[in-house]
Design brief:
GO terms for molecular function: L-iditol 2-dehydrogenase (NAD+) activity; zinc ion binding. The chain is of the alpha+beta class. The chain is built from 2 helices and 5 strands. The protein is globular and about 40 Å long. It starts with 6 loop residues before the first strand and ends with a helix. The structure holds zinc ion (ZN).
């Protein structure tokens, strides 16, 4: 099993129908490739797709290797949003921020439901 899913790289070869990238582009790789057909994918919430194929999740090998083939629409040109060599780090940071954001909402919901119960039964 090959590990690796938060990574970036340089495009060395393209499929014949790829229009969004060119050889030499530096890209950040979205490790999860969704079906692109289900309700979640069409709403832009592809991270909820039940048919997601994810790097380094058996039986799919990860991308920590010299050459790796990936869906072009899940490779993002780093020049479009980030000019440093650390775009894959940005993915990890954004994921961490998102986790804290989601948990703070759950905490808020928990607190507000407790508050409502306390309000109904003031003893
Ligand atoms: Zn889907």
């Amino acid at each position: 099993m090959i590990i690796g899913h938060e990574s970036s790289g340089v495009v060395v070869k393209l499929g014949k129908n790829v229009k969004n990238l060119k050889v030499g582009d530096r890209v950040a790789i979205e490790p999860g490739v969704s079906c692109r057909m289900c309700k979640f994918c069409k709403e832009g919430r592809y991270n909820l797709c039940k048919d997601m194929i994810f790097c380094a999740t058996p039986p799919v090998h990860g991308n920590l290797r010299r050459f790796y083939k990936h869906a072009a629409d899940f490779c993002f040109n780093r020049h479009l949003f980030w000019y440093s060599r650390h775009s894959s780090t940005l993915i990890i940071v954004s994921t961490t921020v998102w986790i804290f954001y989601v948990h703070s909402i759950n905490f808020y919901v928990f607190m507000s439901s407790n508050f409502q119960q306390m309000h109904k039964n003031p003893e």
